[in-house]
Amino acid sequence: VELLGTQVGLVNAARVDASGETAGGTVLIGGDYEGSNPAVQNADRSYVGTDTAIIADARTNGDGGKVVVWADDATQMYGTISARGGAASGDGGLVETSGKQWLDFQGRVDLRAANGRAGNLLLDPTDITISGAANTPTAAFGGGIFSNPTTTPSNLNVVTLTDQLALGNVTVSTASGLGGAG
Predict the structure, then answer these.
(1) Which of 7, 71, 112, 113 would give a disulfide with 46, using CB separation of 3.0 to 4.6 Å?
(2) Are 128 and 91 spatial neighbours (Cβ–Cβ below 8 Å)?
(3) What DSSP line would sit under 85-107, residue for residue?
(4) Do residues 73 and 47 make contact, with C-beta atoms less than 8 angstroms apart?
(5) β-pair type (7-10, 45-48)
(6) What is the dihedral of CA 49, 167, 111, 27, to 10 degrees?
(7) Cα-flanking dihedrals φ and ψ of residue 109, to 5°?
(8) For residue 72, is it left (φ>0), alpha (ψ between -120 and 50) or beta?
(9) What are the CA-CA distances from residue 99 to residues 21, 22, 69 (Å)?
(10) What pLDDT sits at residue 89?
(11) Per-block mean pLDDT, blocks of 10 residues, the chain (182 long)
(12) How far apart are the C-alpha atoms of 105 and 89, rounded to whole Å?
């Protein structure tokens, strides 16, 4: 499933399901892994609302799928993503939620596997602070219109990160190639 455009927003109770019996599928929202696939259009802004569900599970056997929520500028991720391994066998999948410039990650990504290894979540904006401060929204989406992101770095609350680690592996990387502090 590819949901592409300059500005991509999943709102209300949007549901994208690419699950399969023997493997999870691929869902690309706003671009592909690290925005590096020239065959897939990158969004400037991507938004996944709080009531949105994206699912790429392997139901019985096999590995969870691949889900990417990408934007060259800003991404807000508030919904749920699941890329679980199969109930009988298989590992969790791969999920990336990233805004190359700014990221507001307050969602929930389930990468567990009942009979395999947990999958991996990549968060990779140019700058991000991990602290006890509140998650910092960096771009607003309201009434179907994206506003300009602030110039302050993204903040990932340590509780949000700790809660996410209970659902899979997490990598936070600031190696975007842009000139930020990291």
Answers:
(1) 71
(2) no
(3) PPSSB----EEEEEESSEEEE--
(4) no
(5) parallel
(6) 10
(7) -120, 115
(8) alpha
(9) 31, 31, 8
(10) 97
(11) 96 96 98 96 95 98 98 93 98 96 92 98 89 68 53 80 96 72 58
(12) 29
Q: Which amino acid is at 127?
A: D
Distance CA 97, CA 122 (A): 6
CA distance 152 to 116: 39
Strand-pairing partners, residue 80, are: 53, 108
With residue 60 as reference, give the H or E element that holds it.
none
Are the C-beta atoms of 73 and 45 separated by less than 8 Å?
Answer: yes
Q: Pseudo-torsion of CA 163, 108, 93, 63, nearest 10°?
A: 100
Distance CA 168, CA 93 (A): 9
Amino acid at 60: T
Q: Name residue 121's beta-bridge partners.
A: 95, 170
CB neighbourhood size of 49 (10 A): 17
The C-alpha angle with vertex 69 and arms to 94 and 102, in degrees rounded to 5, equals 115
Q: Are 86 and 62 in contact (CB under 8 A)?
A: yes
